[in-house]
Specification:
Blueprint (H helix, E strand, L loop, with lengths): L4 H19 L18 H18 L2 H5 L1 H9 L6 H18 L4 H5 L6 H11 L4 H50 L10 H52 L4 H17 L2 H18 L1
Helix pairs in contact: 1-9, 2-8, 2-9, 4-9, 5-9, 5-10, 7-9, 8-9, 8-11, 9-10
Length: 284
């Protein structure tokens, strides 16, 4: 498995910069690591982490939560999605179909056990199904897959919203305890320390949201975009093969997706797929 170093480096660099920023003394090279203990508070960890996990448990089915290791594996794995490789494969299939007919593609389809969607697409046209029905079925598969991926990413985005909220709750708890236990006769000498402890929960909440959950959600959406791009290339390529288009024209047509994916943002592509899904439901 090829490791996704970008994600790991980003998280570690963020942690390093936070620790470095906390430890800076009178100069950039004068580090006081003992200051890190000012940011350690087990009670705050329990409030923020426990509250965020409770929100995830309450708002998501158990099977989604149990798949966290799988989600992490998807992020850490520098995935197999290769749009250019898919295009080359489609063009090769188009050349075979042009020489020997669509039935000659069945043997190649049986060799694609590692890509069930590609195999299904080929078998649909080999079996002589109507082109419109084939496209509708395949695009429905893409929409359903993207919807499942979106639900997973949304789960982590909700967690990233809950973490700062529980950080604020922890801060309020700390402030209440500080004011309740304040000793007026002593002159309030412990206010500064107590205030610092109260604010630590907000600090934890922001780190959990923006350094853990948001990167996970964004990485999952990126994976979704990569997979859906390959699947859409397969759909358009297979439909072009069924209609008997020239392999060179098919390559030029499909390579336009590569340029388009660079120019467009993920949000625009998700919006376009959402519109396509809504329009198909309206037609039904």
């Amino acid at each position: 498995m090829k490791i996704n170093l970008t994600f790991i480096i980003g998280i570690l660099f963020g942690i390093f910069m936070i620790v470095y920023g906390i430890s800076i003394g009178d100069s950039l090279i004068d580090l006081a690591f003992d200051q890190l203990w000012n940011f350690v508070d087990p009670a705050s960890v329990m409030i923020v982490l426990g509250g965020t996990l409770a929100t995830m448990i309450a708002g998501n089915p158990p099977r989604a939560l149990l798949r966290f290791p799988k989600h992490l594996g998807i992020i850490l794995n520098q995935k197999r999605f290769d749009p250019q490789g898919i295009i080359d494969e489609v063009v090769e299939l188009a050349q075979i179909a042009r020489k020997n007919g669509l039935l000659a593609l069945e043997e190649r389809a049986n060799q694609m056990e590692d890509n069930p969607f590609f195999k299904k697409s080929i078998m649909l046209i080999v079996d002589g199904n109507d082109a419109d029905k084939v496209r509708a079925m395949l695009e429905s598969d893409i929409d359903q897959l993207s919807t499942r991926h979106d639900d997973v990413a949304t789960m982590y985005e909700r967690a990233s919203s809950a973490a700062p909220a529980f950080g604020m709750i922890g801060t309020l708890i700390g402030l209440i305890n500080m004011l309740t236990n304040m000793n007026v006769e002593s002159g309030g000498n412990s206010i500064g320390k107590d205030m610092g402890v109260a604010l630590i929960t907000t600090f934890y909440g922001c780190i959990l949201a923006h350094l853990i959950f948001n990167p996970i959600a964004n990485s999952l959406r990126t994976r979704d975009e990569e997979e859906c791009l390959c699947m859409q290339i397969i759909v358009d390529g297979i439909m072009a093969i069924q209609s008997g288009e020239n392999p060179k024209f098919i390559r030029e047509k499909l390579e336009g997706y590569l340029e388009q994916s660079v120019l467009e943002g993920g949000g625009e592509k998700r919006e376009r797929r959402g519109k396509r899904g809504r329009s198909s439901k309206e037609e039904e």
